[in-house]
Every structure is written in C-alpha cells, then in structure tokens.
Amino acid sequence: MEVEIIDNYMEIKFKKLVPEAKTPFKTHDVDAGFDLFAVSINETPDFIEYNTGIAVEIPEGYVGLIFPRSSVTKMDLMLKNSVGVIDASYRGSLMCRFQKFNEHNVWGDPNNIKKFEVGDRVAQIVFMEIPKITMVEAQELSDTERGEGGFGSTGSK
After folding, report:
1. Among candidates 149, 126, 129, 117, which has minimal Cα distance to 40?
2. Domains, the chain, ranges and CATH?
3. Radius of gyration (Cα) for the chain, nearest Å?
4. Does the global pTM surpass 0.70?
5. Mapping DSSP to helix (H, G, I), strand (E, B) and coil, where does residue 4 land?
6. Is residue 149 scored above 80 in pLDDT?
C-alpha cells in the first residue's frame, strides 16, 4: 500500500464500525495524538475495556500507538498494556483495556472507582513511521559509557 501525502499530510483511512463512533481528531494541528472515544464498555471484575468503534488502515511501514490521555490521572484506571501497538495489518476495532485501582495504588473496589463513560475520550492514537530492521546476531557489542547499567543506573531518582 502506498502512502498518500497531500499538502504535507499523510492520509490514514478509518472506518466507523458502529453508527455512534466518533471521528478521531486532534484539538490542535501540532498535537501528536488523535483522541479516541468510547462507544461501549465491557466491564469485568479485573478490567474495563472500551470499544472505540473505529478501525484504521495504517500504511505498511507505519504503526499506530495507543496511549492513555493525560485525563486518565483523574480516573482510577491504568492502561493494562501501557501502550497498545496497532500493526499495519490489523483491521479490527480499536480497543482500550484498563486496569482498575484506587487512590492508594491498590486494586480498587470495582463498584466504587472513577472511570470513563460512553462518549468520553478514553485514549489517543499516535502514528509513527517504523524503519525496516534486520536483527543480526553478534558475539560482541560495542562498549558505551553506560555499559550494562540499568534501572536507574544513570543517577536519576
């Protein structure tokens, strides 16, 4: 599939899978993410899943990354997979699954949590180009100043 760029904008096709689905949008032209709205909710004792009712056609060589919106900090929710990766070959509905918790950072009472409702903006999708990469096994890797230090080894607290 060829990427079409018109007036310096790449076109991403999307399809409303249900009549109540809302068109993903950016509030400001310079924003990175397109807001996604909930059209339905599937709530279990373990999670809340929001269906956006939107499918996208991501061009080959690109990926869609679903992130929570900053407003999630007002809720008792955390996106279960941290970032949703939408591959170019996926044509299903964009779904957002959240873990429930309360203000004490423990799993919350499922009957008493702040959550998004149908019609709310629940997440955002960012489209990024991905390079073609071939993994090559090596016996040695180049040295760096950091080396094998991880988990806060650079001095950040």
Report:
1. 117
2. 5-129 (2.70.40.10)
3. 19
4. yes
5. coil
6. no
